[in-house]
Specification:
Blueprint lengths: L4 E3 L5 H12 L4 E5 L6 H6 L2 E4 L5 H8 L4 E4 L7 H15 L3 E5 L11 H14 L4 E7 L5 H4 L2 H7 L1 E4 L5 E2 L4 H14 L6 E4 L5 E2 H12 L4 E4 L2 H10 L4 H15 L9 H6 L6 H7 L6
Parallel strand pairs: 1-2, 1-4, 2-3, 4-5, 5-6, 6-9, 7-11
Antiparallel strand pairs: 8-10
This protein binds NADP nicotinamide-adenine-dinucleotide phosphate.
């Protein structure tokens, strides 16, 4: 039991990949699942599944019982810091000894945008817990192009963001998971915080060129005005606070603040991070 590692958000981008890679290493995993109907793939992987609600400390405490190490994240919601504090409360009650906490690049910046400030508050709950921890701060995920752009790439050979020609040192979620797994299984990084990025900064125009090369079709990026992006996001039913927080993120991408490249992935995993070209080749089925 003590060797079991708990994974938050196990049906999401990072959590699912962390589970997959932990299992590949023969680690016993307990997957924290919010909506049971999304747990199918985890059941196929054969992991222990527990129901959790980050709003409910008791459910988290039960899920963490007998666990020494845990991966913690909050979904993108305005009270994500409160959810982190709930996780910490439960982890203390359950006797967890080590937490790897995911936030986002720039959370530690004095000029942090709203998202960064939420994440920094979430990190502080972990830092003040008395439990050993490591913080990871990934930049935007390459997988966002599957989740938010593949649909129009397939139907219109085009994708749309209000990000100008700003460059982003995008990271593949597989690299984030590899870091999380190394931290959880090897140790030695307690009390540290790492910014995680891919190997290079690319603009959406460069991404369009890469996707065109990989798919053999011409794919265009359109730099849409902020107002159009706002309208589009609102139409999906996204809460207004989240819409505004994401527009702020796009604004700093456009202004050129998200291109810094960090050496941390290779330092921690021993392997260079995956390029966007490799990501596109590995996920070509989503763009064809
Ligand atoms: N996308 C990016 O480029 C990026 C970059 C840096 C940082 N981040 C940060 O990464 C985090 C999101 O991670 P992700 O993309 O891996 O996750 P995700 O794919 O958005 O999925 C969120 C996960 O959290 C679960 N969840 C939602 N509400 C919950 C609740 N009340 N209790 C327990 N679990 C709950 C979801 O389950 P259900 O679906 O069943 O609710 C799902 O498994 C956010 O904090 C975001 O700010 C994202």
């Amino acid at each position: 039991m003590a060797n079991t590692i708990f994974v938050s958000g196990a049906t999401g981008n990072m959590g699912k990949e962390v589970v997959r890679q932990l299992i590949a290493q023969g680690v016993q995993v307990r997957a924290g699942v919010h909506s049971k109907e999304k747990a199918g793939i985890l059941k196929e992987m054969g992991v222990e599944i527990v129901s959790v609600d980050l709003n409910d400390v008791k459910s988290l405490q039960t899920a963490l019982e007998g666990v020494e190490k845990a991966f913690s994240l909050s979904p993108l919601v305005p009270n994500l810091a409160e959810l982190s504090a709930n996780f910490v409360k439960a982890a203390k009650l359950a006797g967890v000894k080590y937490i790897v906490r995911a936030s986002g690049m720039g959370a530690d910046s004095p000029q942090a945008i709203t998202l960064g400030r939420w994440h920094r508050e979430a990190e502080k709950a972990v830092e003040s817990s008395g439990i050993a921890y490591t913080l990871i701060r990934p930049n935007s995920f390459m997988q966002n192009y599957i989740n938010f752009a593949a649909h129009t790439i397939k139907s219109q050979n085009a994708f749309y963001f209000p990000q100008g020609d700003g460059k982003i040192s995008l990271i593949d979620v597989r690299d984030i998971a590899a870091v999380v797994v190394a931290l959880l299984t090897k140790g030695g990084h307690e009390g540290k915080a790492y910014t995680l990025t891919g190997p290079e900064a690319v603009s959406n125009y460069q991404i369009a060129a890469i996707l065109s090369r990989v798919t053999g079709r011409t794919i265009n990026y359109t730099d849409v005005p902020e107002a159009a992006a706002r309208q589009g996001m609102k139409e999906t039913g996204m809460p207004e606070t989240i819409v505004e927080a994401l527009l702020e993120l796009s604004a700093i991408i456009k202004a050129g603040y998200t291109g810094a490249v960090s050496p941390a992935v290779e330092q921690i995993t021993g392997k260079p991070p995956i390029s966007f070209e490799q990501f596109a080749k590995d996920h070509i089925r989503f763009f064809k």
